[in-house]
Amino acid sequence: MTNSLSEVEFYDALFIIGSNTTEAHPIIGGMMKRAARRGARLIVADPRHIELVDHAALWLQLTPGTDAALVNGMMHIILNEGWADREFIAKRCEGYDELWEVVKNYTPDVVSKITGVPEDKIWTAAELYANTARAGIFYTLGITEHTTGTANVMNLANLAMITGHVGVSHAGVNPLRGQNNVQGACDMGALPNFFSDYRSVAKPENAAVFQQAWHAPLNLEPGLRIPEMFDAILAGELKAMYIMGEDPVLTDADANHVRKAIDKLEFLVVQDIFLSETAKYADVVLPAACYAEKDGTFTNTERRVQRVRKAVEPPGEARADWEIIADLSARMGYPMEYDSPADIFEEVRTLTPNYAGMTYDRVEACGLQWPCPDLDHPGTPYLHEDVFPRGRGRLMGIEYEPPAELLSDEYPMLLTTGRMLYQYNVSTRQSPTLEYLAPYEQTEINPSDASAIGVSEGERMRVSSRRGSVTTRARLTDRVPPGILFMTFHYRETAANELTNSAFDPTSKTAEFKVSAVRIEKA
Asked: What's the DSSP call for residue 280?
């Protein structure tokens, strides 16, 4: 997030796009509802009637996968009507002409035909966002889990920059991270193309820093992303995997393709707190400690580095992740001489400029937000106050591109996937209380579509795509419009990702979970 969570309740306008916040991020969703009660105007862009729609001043019910067109339409109006912050654009941005060459073609009537959103609502959204000083953008996987996910994010940055809604408090572009330490994992270089602090592994000067610290040569070739790994396995180029805290058999797109790849591995290690669906394929399972059984730090969605403290001892043979990795490294010939997570964090701060001013003592109470470059720095509540990391912010024209998979006579319905409040990813199936509240998948289907196949509330229906087929219980609801289904991915018994499309964004390699063509029939 460019901004802080403490600001959310005090925005005057919130543009929430591709985020079912009250279910996927319920604490932040509660803040948004309090903001609405205080008088903030919520603009909610979502194909479904999610809970936040009930608190919104405006609901933009767009067709899944048309986010870029909607944002282009808003920018077209803002620039034509003189609602842009011309001073901010002139002082802090470049590429305006390139942006306008694209945006000028996205007139409200064109955008309405693409998105399904009425023209008057596009106008209202543009005016409300542009002409409210304390206005922020909030998005999650509904924006990124597309073949155009990177472009979608860049387009939201365009919208924020042309209105001057960045580099100040109560504004900005705020991605809500999907899990508790996604931000921290990325900060630490848990990516195949970056060291910590997002420094490219391909640059020798970056590698030299870490080679000197670790007294070991490093490979300067970027590694593979997740979908590339599975393709490499099937091509015979990748023979072994070490999977930590992930369950790709259940959570990755085109699950049958994933299973086929994992089954072909010569050696698989899974390190997890439960025997996941993926762990059932493993040659070796390393039992790990959960968050309450270990010390360390997490970095949350607002860039806040926070202490995690051991409350109980791990059960059985379970151990903290760092201990397992250090022991494994020693047995492979590279001793790691750490005695505690505090030792590791001290190394982190010496090698990661954004963390340089943090120590265990400083983050003990309530944490610090990076950048925090020195021990006297208070942390940074919002980013880009005076300058962007690259100097001027680059405006880029983003053309709308349709999803990778279109509807057809054989597969005439659109499936989109997401989360529900009562389960979290796939791990909470171990909780009897949550199982009582939500024991099985209930696929949302519009009553008119259910009637067409003769399915009543709670009855079973079969959903099939080009990749697989599952049976599920029907939940008849107007939350989804005709022609669209919604499923969660929490349930192994109804594995939604057997249906989803593994086509991925060319930059991030994130799969297009949000748009798949399917057909339905009574089971």
From this structure: G
Beta bridge partners of 267: 240
461 alpha carbon, distance to own chain's centre: 30
Per DSSP, the chain holds a count of helices (H) and strands (E) of: 19, 23
Residue type, 49: H
Cβ-Cβ contacts under 8 Å for 389 (sequence gap 6 or more): none
Q: Which helix (H) or strand (E) holds 325?
A: helix 321-331
Separation of alpha carbons 7 and 12, rounded Å:
10
| Adjacent-strand bridge partners of 484 | 414
pTM above 0.85, yes or no: yes
Location of structure tokens 């319920």: 26
Tell how strand 460-464 and strand 516-522 pair up.
antiparallel
Among 180, 218, 192, CA closest to 296:
180
Distance CA 252, CA 42 (A): 32
Q: List the domains of the chain with CATH numbers.
A: 5-176 (3.40.228.10), 177-220+288-375 (3.40.50.740), 224-287 (3.40.228.10), 413-522 (2.40.40.20)
Mean pLDDT of the chain: 95
pLDDT digits (tens, 9 = 90+) for 161-199: 999 999 999 999 999 988 888 999 999 999 999 999 999
Identify whether 26 is preceded by a cis peptide bond (ω within 30 of 0): no
CA distance linking residue 174 with residue 516, whole number of Å:
26
